[in-house]
Amino acid sequence: MTGWQLNLGPLKEPLGFIKLLEWISAIFSFATCGGYSGKTEIIVSCGNATVPNETLTASFMYPFRLHLQTFELKDLKCVDKWLPSHLTGDFSSSAEFYVAIGVFAFLYSMVALALYLGFMHLYRDTQKFPLIDFIITVIFAFMWLVSSSAWAKGLTDIKAATSPENIARHHCQGGFLCSPGQESHMGSLNISVAFGFLNLVLWAGNAWFVYKETHLHAPSLSNAEQDPGNPGNIPSP
């Protein structure tokens, strides 16, 4: 039979159970990164005690093109001295690459789970499906290593570029007095990096269990029977 045959048995095996974990982990990876938005603040004064201070805010979000974000100035009296101030840096490449790997991993894990649960009889009766699955799994493991490392470096740079202390030190000139304001919490971005390296472990570990399903690990019985030099071909009495 070649049709759909629902079988939840593979979920009890490492092959299917780890794939389910990969599917869940991929969701957390791209959701915690792609859904982030934050802001950084600096407190600016004109150096005159009679003029109240003003808090300037610059919002930023995925994909973290910080150079497009400016501080919003509203009621500062010495506005004629203020020049538009931008955040610095464009970290969209590492962020978008990381999210793309997460989305593709999510989609492939879903397809693989459907194959395991409905067509495992075809999966194990042919040599083509396990080999393709193994190659794709190894590629994803490598991609998680590259994307997670790039995103971890990008996140470090984002923290430095949006730090109120760094901004107050470098962005305020021409008679303005600046002090750091509130710093945005980046807990979800830290979690996204952690899930990236967790995905690396899951996909690298799963590669071994997929490899065991291929003919590379266990040659077919028919090939063994055709080999006259194989000691296992001794007929039973």
TrEMBL record:
- Which superkingdom, per the lineage? Eukaryota
Q: Where in the cell is it found?
A: Membrane
Identify its membrane topology class.
Multi-pass membrane protein
| This protein's GO CC annotations | synaptic vesicle membrane
* Domain (MARVEL) ranges: 10-215
| Transmembrane stretches, start-end | 97-119, 131-152, 189-211
Any keyword Glycoprotein?
A: yes
Q: What is its main location?
A: membrane
Enumerate the Pfam families for this protein. Answer: MARVEL (PF01284)
Keyword annotations for this protein, in alphabetical order, are: Glycoprotein, Membrane, Transmembrane, Transmembrane helix
Q: What InterPro entries does this protein map onto?
A: Marvel (IPR008253), Synaptophysin/porin (IPR001285)
Q: Which PANTHER family match?
A: SYNAPTOPHYSIN, SYNAPTOPHYSIN-LIKE PROTEIN 1
Query: Which family does the entry's similarity section mention?
Result: Belongs to the synaptophysin/synaptobrevin family.
Q: What is this protein called?
A: MARVEL domain-containing protein
Which organism is this entry from?
Hymenochirus boettgeri (Congo dwarf clawed frog)
Instruction: Identify the taxonomic lineage of the organism of origin.
Output: Eukaryota, Metazoa, Chordata, Craniata, Vertebrata
